[in-house]
Amino acid sequence: MPRTDPQMKIRLPPDLHAYVKRRAQQERRSMNSEIVLLILREMEKEKASGASLATTPDASYQ
């Protein structure tokens, strides 16, 4: 069955790429699965705290 999830390209700084790659290997997941899991966990934290994007600081990577 073909996937229907939207795809996107992202740019990761080398240190962040290495971090995600290392975590994915340790957990025996793809890098995509690891990134999705990390984002979902952050979403759950946000829901639990009642925070919204409007009240959180800019998370731009420097």
Secondary structure: elements and pairs:
Elements lengths: L13 H14 L3 H19 L13
Strand segment tally? 0
User: In this structure, how is the largest beta sheet organized?
Assistant: none
Along the chain, the helix and strand elements come as HH
Assembly state of the chains shown: single chain
Structural class: mainly alpha
Q: What share of the residues lie within helices? A: 40-55%
Low-confidence segments, ≥5 residues, pLDDT <50?
Answer: none
Gyration radius from CA atoms, angstroms: 14 Å
Report, as a whole number of angstroms, the end-to-end distance. Answer: 39 Å
Tally of alpha and pi helices: 2
- Average pLDDT, rounded to a whole number, is 87
Our estimate of the beta-strand percent is under 5%
Shape: globular
Notes on the structure:
The protein has 62 residues and is mainly alpha-helical. It has a domain at 14-48. Helices cover 53% and strands 0% of the residues. It is built from 2 helices and no strands. The protein has helices at 14-27, 31-49. The radius of gyration is 14 Å and the shape is globular. The chain starts with 13 loop residues before the first helix and ends in a 13-residue tail after the last helix. The model has no long low-confidence stretch (mean pLDDT 87).
